[in-house]
Each structure stands twice: as structure tokens, then as C-alpha cells.
Design goal:
By secondary structure, the chain is α+β, with helices and mostly antiparallel strands. It has 2 domains: 280 residues, Aminohydrolase, N-terminal nucleophile (Ntn) domain (Glutamine Phosphoribosylpyrophosphate, subunit 1, domain 1, 4-Layer Sandwich); 172 residues, Rossmann fold. Helices cover 28% and strands 26% of the residues. The strands form 7 sheets. Strands 4-3-5-2-11-10-12 form a 7-stranded antiparallel sheet. A 6-stranded antiparallel sheet has the order 6-7-8-9-13-14. It is elongated.
Length: 506
């Protein structure tokens, strides 16, 4: 779900814009969605919302819908427990959390899920993770034909297309709309008759189905299942729409439709494995933890560190928390291939109490922020040959501040290993990256030696593109999107996609 002015968000790690969840047939559906959104909090920390539905007390055979959403973490948005227990009663619900690309200036109207009630589609709630690459053109055409937009997001376009479709039923209307949009989307939709979920024809973003009690759950990652003790069933396939309704409850059969008649090759986002998804999740049908360990192992094969003698100690440490798993893989293989006295150590302690809106006054803004988030364990690092494993470098400002901190701990040598290739292009399929010009790899024209000097480490090596793709799960008909590393965008990018032509206002 994309908004304007992404380049204004001064991030030093890419951000995943959204997490989505849906639950069908649970007596406390909204409460369960609330906990699932907690598990998906890493996918969006700027806002959250839930739409719930229950049988109408006034009109038998119909359903009543309620919605609550707001700025902040899930815990903040739903801090009044009566919202879940009283306002959002029902046995069906969908939820959404998001990162905005304009921080605190995001319009409240842009917070999802979106909800409409119209004569043509009835009640409809929508939660979207991804980015439509033909959004500017579609919005212009719809506006010229009379559509009035309430938000500045591409997600609303899907609602307008569903409402304008001439198909007879809501499922065909949804399919009709999804055949028009292009780009990346993982969707949960709540209708009068069921829960609908879909992934775009290339399947950029993950989405899985699970069983919870007598009902079903759909979520961006399976860590949302674990918190609810739900059972993983399968991934929703690329180019697939699934429908879960009362007939599903009776037969146990989840209805499945294809969006495009000809199913293209999947292009799963490989950066989900590198950084975004939680290591305890299963995405695209595979364990994130196992893939990250493979990335670390391959990195050690390509760029291991030897001791000058067999007894010289090599300390391998990760940058918590996203690099922890790759660090384990790296240290294991480096011990086997390069230095028998390789030790995996905890060289950085991370504070989990730094608020996302933390303001650091003074000129050394970045350094202060790093020191509030991390602290070096000097007793582990002093006089040691140290290898730091991190998952990625974006602008490089945080990496440089982190290196300065580690240098102050007195290591004998400091080597940096990155478990992904240099990031050279922004993602246009649902993640928030800096502009191409802001990426450190482009600022130094992919001159790794110049980047090494800028960061202040003794050696710097990135994982190769081949090492990355070969470490990811290999399946027939499944390929990966590596656009942020290679510039090869699988879906045509419309001009104006990175910064939409419609501006966001307060």
C-alpha cells in the first residue's frame, strides 16, 4: 500500500509497508486478529486497524460491520480493551498494520483496513500489502470517469474497480478488478458472505492460510498463526484468489480461482528471506530461519576470515536482531573452512525500549540514535579479530555509526560481511527504500573498496547475487524478484510509480 513522497522517509533499512490478517468463524475474531497483528508488528508500526462483522440483530440473515483504526502500534491503537470486547464483536474480521512513507504526517483516511457499503457490492473491507505499479494511470482514468477518492493510496483503486465492475457477484467483481491492476498485492477482503484473500500473479508478497479452531486464518506470515496456536495449511499461490465462507466450514474445501487465465512464473521477493520476515515464520512455503542460515553459510564460503595461526581466535558477531540467524550460519562454516577457533559471540546488546518516535537532539544525530539502540560488549571485542555480519547496507549512515562504536571497544581487526548483495535500486513492489541516488552502493558506483573506506572497516564483502539466489529454495515454476540488487523489475514500472502524482496532505 503506497503513498507519496517515499524519499522523504530517512530510513537506513528498507521498510515493509504492511502486514495483513483475516479470520473467518471464530467467536472472538477481532481479538484473535489483534494478537495476530502483534506478531506482524514488524511489518508496520505507524498505524493499525480492524474490521469485524457479526450477524445483524435487527435484520436476520444480514450482517453488521464495525471498524476501528488509528495511528500507532497495535497496542496503542487498541489500548482501550472495550474496543475489542464491545465495539468489534463478531465471528469474522480482517486487520492491517502499516508503515507510512511520510511518517506521522499520514492522513487518517489512509489507515487501513478500508471499508465501504454500497448498493452494488454490499459491505466490503479491504487490507492490502504491496504496491500497484499502474496506480497513477488508473487513478487518473477513474477520476475522469467520476470516481471520487477519499485517500491518497493505491489500495483505494481496487475498491473503485470492484464497485464499477459489471460482474454479477462479489467474487467475480474482485477477480475482474484484480485483472486490471498491476504490481504487487497480498489482500484480505471481508464481504457479506465470506473472507476473500488473493496474491498477485507473480506472488511478490507472502500470504498463508491456517486453521484456527472451527475457522480459518489468513496472514502475511505464519508467526501470526503461532501466537494463536493455529495450524498452517498452505500458502496462497501466486495468481490465486481463495474464498472461505460457510460452505467451506461445512465441506472443508477452500474455493480457489485463478486471477489471470495464464499463470505466469512466480517472482517471490527474495528480500523477505534476507530481512523483512521474522525468522520463526514460514513464507512462500519455507522456513525463513533455514534460508537465512544458508545465506550465512554461503557468505562464509565466499568471504570467510582466516586466522593468522590455527589458534588465533576469530570472533563472529551479528547486528541484532535481523542478522542473528545468518551469523549462526556464517560462524559454523567459517569454523569448518577457515579458522578452527571461530567463536560466535554476542558483541552488541540491543535496547528494546527505544521508541520509534525517539528524537535525538544535537549535531551527532545518527551516532546518538545508534548508541541508544546498541551498546558494544567491550570484553568480547577488545584485542580480537572481529567479523560483523549484517543483512544489508542501505544509506550506510547507521553502519558507519555502528562501526565507530565498535572501534571504540578496541578490536584488533574489524571486518564487515553482508548477507545480501549491494542494494542498487529501490523496490517498487511494496517496500519503502530510499531513492536510487541515496543508496551508498550507487554513491560510490559499486566501488566496494571506496565503501569500505567510508565505513571504516578493515575489509568489506557482500554476498554475491548468485550466492543469494542459489541459497533460496529452488522450486519448479518459482523464481525470485531481485530488482533491488539487479534492477531487473519483473513487472513493467509505470512512470510516476515511485513518487505518485497525487500528493499526500495532512
Amino acid at each position: 500500500m503506497k503513498t507519496a513522497a517515499a524519499s522523504n522517509c530517512k530510513i537506513d533499512k528498507p521498510l515493509c509497508n504492511c502486514g495483513v490478517v483475516g479470520i473467518y468463524n471464530h467467536p472472538e475474531a477481532a481479538v484473535q486478529v489483534y494478537y495476530a497483528l502483534h506478531a506482524l508488528q514488524h511489518r508496520g508500526q505507524e498505524s493499525a486497524g480492524i474490521v469485524a462483522s457479526r450477524p445483524s440483530q435487527k435484520h436476520p440473515g444480514e450482517r453488521s460491520f464495525a471498524i476501528h483504526k488509528g495511528h500507532g502500534l497495535v497496542l496503542e491503537v487498541f489500548q482501550d480493551s472495550s474496543i475489542l470486547s464491545d465495539q468489534l464483536q463478531g465471528n469474522h474480521a480482517i486487520g492491517h498494520n502499516r508503515y507510512s512513507t511520510t511518517g506521522s504526517t499520514v492522513k487518517r483516511a489512509n489507515i487501513q483496513p478500508f471499508f465501504i457499503n454500497s448498493p452494488t457490492v454490499g459491505h466490503l473491507g479491504l487490507a492490502h500489502n504491496g504496491n500497484l505499479t499502474n496506480a497513477a494511470t488508473l487513478r487518473k482514468l477513474l477520476s475522469e470517469e467520476g470516481s471520487i477518492f477519499q485517500t491518497t493510496t493505491d489500495s483505494e483503486i481496487i475498491l473503485h474497480l470492484i464497485a464499477r465492475s459489471r460482474e454479477d457477484n462479489i467474487i467475480d467483481r474482485i477477480r475482474d478488478a484484480l485483472r486490471i491492476v498491476r504490481g504487487a498485492y497480498a489482500l484480505t477482503l471481508l464481504t457479506d458472505h465470506g473472507l476473500v484473500a488473493a496474491r498477485d500473479p507473480h506472488g511478490f508478497r507472502p500470504l498463508s492460510i491456517g486453521k484456527i479452531g472451527d475457522g480459518y486464518i489468513v496472514a502475511s506470515e505464519t508467526c501470526a498463526f503461532d501466537i494463536l496456536q493455529a495450524e498452517y495449511i498452505r500458502d496462497i499461490g501466486h495468481n490465486e484468489i481463495v474464498v472461505i465462507d460457510d460452505e467451506t466450514l461445512q465441506t472443508g474445501v477452500i474455493k480457489s480461482l485463478q486471477i489471470d487465465d495464464v499463470r505466469p512464473e512466480a517472482r517471490h521477493c527474495i528480500f523477505e528471506y534476507v530481512y523483512f520476515s521474522r525468522p520463526d515464520s514460514k513464507i512462500f512455503g519455507h522456513s525463513v530461519d533455514k534460508v537465512r542460515r544458508k545465506l550465512g553459510k554461503r557468505l562464509a564460503e565466499e568471504a570467510g576470515i582466516k586466522g593468522k595461526t590455527e589458534d588465533e581466535k576469530v570472533v563472529v558477531m551479528g547486528v541484532p536482531d535481523s542478522s542473528n540467524t545468518a551469523t549462526l550460519g556464517y560462524s559454523h562454516v567459517n569454523r569448518e573452512l577457515n579458522a578452527p577457533n571461530t567463536r560466535h559471540e554476542i558483541g552488541l546488546i540491543r535496547s528494546h525500549y527505544v521508541g520509534r518516535t525517539f528524537i535525538s537532539p544535537g549535531q551527532k544525530n545518527r551516532e546518538i540514535k545508534v548508541r541508544t539502540k546498541f551498546n558494544a560488549v567491550k570484553g568480547v571485542l577488545k584485542d580480537q579479530k572481529v567479523v560483523v555480519v549484517d543483512d544489508s547496507i542501505v544509506r550506510g549512515t547507521t553502519s558507519k555509526a555502528l562501526v565507530n562504536m565498535l572501534r571504540n571497544a578496541g578490536p584488533k581487526e574489524l571486518h564487515l560481511r553482508i548477507s545480501s548483495p549491494p542494494i542498487t535500486h529501490p523496490c517498487l513492489y511494496g517496500m519503502d527504500f530510499p531513492s536510487k541516488e541515496e543508496l551508498i552502493a550507487n554513491q560510490y558506483d559499486l566501488n566496494i573498496e571506496a565503501i569500505r573506506e567510508e565505513l571504516g572497516v578493515d575489509t568489506l564483502t557482500y554476498l554475491s547475487v548468485e550466492g543469494l539466489t542459489e541459497s533460496a529454495p529452488q522450486e519448479e515454476g518459482i523464481n525470485y524478484c531481485t530488482a533491488c540488487f539487479t534492477g531487473n523489475y519483473p513487472v513493467q514500472i509505470e512512470e510516476g510509480t515511485k513518487k505518485l502524482e497525487f500528493e499526500e496532505v495532512e
